[in-house]
Amino acid sequence: MPAAEPAARARTVVLLSGTGSLCAALLEAADDRGYPAEVVAVGADRQAPGLEHARRRGLPTFVCALGDHPDRAAWDRALADRIAAFAPGLVVSAGFMKIVGPAVLDAFEGRLLNTHPALLPAFPGAHAVRDALAAGATVTGSTVHLVDAGVDTGPVLAQREVPVLPGDDEATLHERIKHVERQLLVETVAAFAAAPPTTPPRTRKST
């Protein structure tokens, strides 16, 4: 009998704003052709160093900067168009530090994932690690969730805990979270790409 055709890999666009360590982890995973997602482009809201991870692999990159547009709505529409040009089945916000608006949300509803360095719904927003320390939390972690119109309020796909150790500061705790975050993102993207949920997912924790 002829060999079965390999399953199509989910075309994936990654968005970032910084050094791109999460993007690098996804790209490394996607180098294995058995991984169910294929990164087809990497975008940013600035000339971020993380874009080099894609360029070294010969992948397309793009920058869609808020300051290059007359207002946030125009930027959001432009970002949606730039992403859509690569016909992705999946969009991953991996350290992307801008809140997307209706144009992006409508274009990629149910297909836009974000990673967050806390156990949502605890400590949403841009300063999750600092906020966890300030609150005296003994456990925090990483969450991968679908993006909705709120700030870190979308349905949770997976979570993993990270203990807060005596003497931790923001840098040491964030470094341990990032180690877990990279692994969790790679695993969750693989699971989502292989079998996207047909109904809104419930919160579920991976330990």
Please tell me about this protein's structure.
The protein contains 6 helices and 7 strands, in the order βαβαβαβαβαββα. The chain is α/β, with parallel strands linked by helices and 207 residues long. The chain has 2 domains: 9-109, Rossmann fold; 116-189, 3-Layer(aba) Sandwich (Rossmann fold). Strand 4, helix 4 (102-107) and strand 5 form a beta-alpha-beta unit. The longest helix has 25 residues, at 170-194. The chain is globular and about 45 Å long. The protein starts with 9 loop residues before the first strand and ends in a 13-residue tail after the last helix. Mean pLDDT is 93; it is low at 1-5 and 199-207.
Average residue pLDDT: 93
* Class of secondary structure makeup: alpha/beta
Distance between the ends: 41 Å
Radius of gyration: 17 Å
- Tell me what portion of residues adopts beta-strand conformation: 15-25%
How many beta-strand runs? 7
CATH class descriptor of the largest domain: Alpha Beta
Question: Which properties best describe this structure?
Answer:
207 residues; alpha/beta; Rossmann fold; 2 domains; seven-stranded mixed beta sheet; 6 helices; globular; disordered N terminus; disordered C terminus
